[in-house]
Specification:
The chain is of the alpha/beta class. It is 37% helix and 19% strand.
Length: 443
């Protein structure tokens, strides 16, 4: 089966058309997974290029995994609708991209098992992102696999795992990150913090693993450098995905007198935190990495207006005709309010994959990786370029603040909540760049 879950057995390869037809019954998602309208018949029946998505598709972070799946599936639909990935006849001619699902269940061990199954199933491209700890484990496993089995090498495209060490100490020729890492995102947030002269105290809180630790570490570093007048009145980490009641944390935040909270929390760990803060009457500002969707705006309601700041690679209320058309297209494809979470970086990632395969003239992982190092793509007025030195994608970042739909600059809301994000800063890629310490072995 081409759309797959974790399974130890090798599956028979189906044509892309058959695989897409099976998708409706095999994958538990909220939309019909069929071939994109207008997909050429010759492409739909060609040998597919298999891409494995290894992500949390069950458990406390299942909503984040499904949001990723929708984004990447939609991006691949567009590639296939325009004729697929153009390859020479010797490499099979034009071929469709087909996405395979593997549930990591939020566990590194499950992710590694899924990696083995994906390779056995014929995938030579692996995508993952919603855990830096899992990404680190996959990098190590892929490095070892590619050394042992050069005929079955794979590349790893990372869309959300943003611990800086992944493109520094742990950088790998086989790994490419398409999200801005934590230090880049913090730099963008600090552009707003620096301008808030009334701010005198902050509370730092995050998830207790490599990414959450990196966020708090960088927050302290940048506050000391850019806002030494701001006091840090709280600094703590909590277990990832295990806290069901954030009320005790919210009470501590309120009691500290902090005027703002800085957090890298994502998924339910963010939604529950901001909901608890609202319920205890906390009125400070939340400076977040991911506060712009997945239930957080609805959880805050009016209490979040002007109080939740989020950094992203793009926001729906970026005011340009191409951006608006892009967002309207996504909402037409996924009209349910709960499905409203589109990531520009994931769309650019798939475009970079198609571009790199075409330039390589092959699906060979080494050849594709060499081309990926210089990938440069654009879509809907946004663009990005891969930096060869550390395989960190360089792209503009946007900072927005929560406001009511219909307010100036807030044409679109989030998830049908009635609240959206007004753009405060649109920061060029040149200003978001960070130095790196990568010393990469190339192939």
């Amino acid at each position: 089966m081409t759309f797959s879950f974790i399974a130890p057995l090798r599956r028979p390869v189906l044509t892309a058309a058959a695989a897409l037809a099976l998708a409706c019954t095999l994958a538990p998602t909220s939309f019909a997974q069929t071939a994109a309208p207008g997909t050429p018949a010759a492409v739909a029946t060609a040998q597919p290029i298999k891409v494995a998505l290894i992500e949390s598709l069950s458990g406390p972070f299942a909503n984040t995994g499904e949001a990723v799946y929708r984004n990447i599936f939609w991006a691949m639909e567009r590639v296939n609708a325009r004729g697929g990935v153009a390859l020479p006849a010797a490499a099979g001619g034009a071929r469709p991209l087909v996405l395979q699902r593997y549930d990591s269940k939020g566990q590194n061990e499950e992710a590694l098992s899924a990696l083995r199954a994906a390779i056995d199933d014929g995938a030579r491209v692996v995508m993952q992102g919603n855990s830096s700890a899992t990404a680190a484990a996959l990098i190590d496993a892929i490095n070892k696999h590619n050394e042992r089995e050069p005929d079955k090498r794979v590349i790893f495209l990372n869309y959300s795992a943003v611990d800086p060490l992944l493109t520094n100490e742990k950088c790998s020729f086989w790994h490419f990150r398409f999200d801005a890492h934590a230090d880049m995102r913090m730099t963008a947030l600090m552009d707003v913090v620096r301008a808030d002269k009334a701010l005198k105290s902050v509370y730092l809180i995050g998830q207790d693993y490599s990414f959450g630790q990196a966020v708090l570490r960088e927050a302290k570093k940048q506050l000391a450098a850019q806002r030494p007048d701001v006091a840090i009145v709280g600094d703590e980490l909590h277990a990832v995905g295990r806290v069901k009641d954030f009320a005790p944390y919210a009470v501590k935040i309120k009691s500290s007198g902090a005027q703002a909270v800085i957090t890298g929390n994502w998924g339910n760990d963010l939604t529950l935190l901001v909901k608890a803060a609202r319920e205890v009457g906390y009125t400070g500002i939340f400076y977040t990495f991911y506060g712009n969707a997945l239930g957080a705006p609805a959880a805050l309601g009016d209490a979040g207006v002007g109080k939740v700041v989020a950094v992203a690679d793009w926001l729906p209320n970026v005011q340009s005709a191409p951006s608006e058309a892009f967002y309207q297209s996504f909402r037409s494809r996924f009209p349910k309010p709960q499905d409203d979470y589109v990531h520009m970086r994931m769309q650019l990632m798939v475009e970079a994959l198609a571009q790199s395969i075409e330039r390589a003239g092959s699906v060979d992982a080494t050849a594709v990786a060499r081309q990926m190092e210089s990938a440069s793509v654009q879509l809907a007025g946004r663009s990005g370029t891969m930096r060869a030195g550390d395989h960190q994608f360089q792209q503009p970042l946007v900072v927005g603040v929560m406001d009511k739909q219909g307010s100036t600059g807030v044409k679109f809301d989030v998830e049908g909540s009635g609240y959206g994000f007004r753009v405060l800063r649109d920061i060029p890629a040149a200003q978001t760049q960070q130095p790196h310490s990568c010393k990469m072995q190339r192939f």
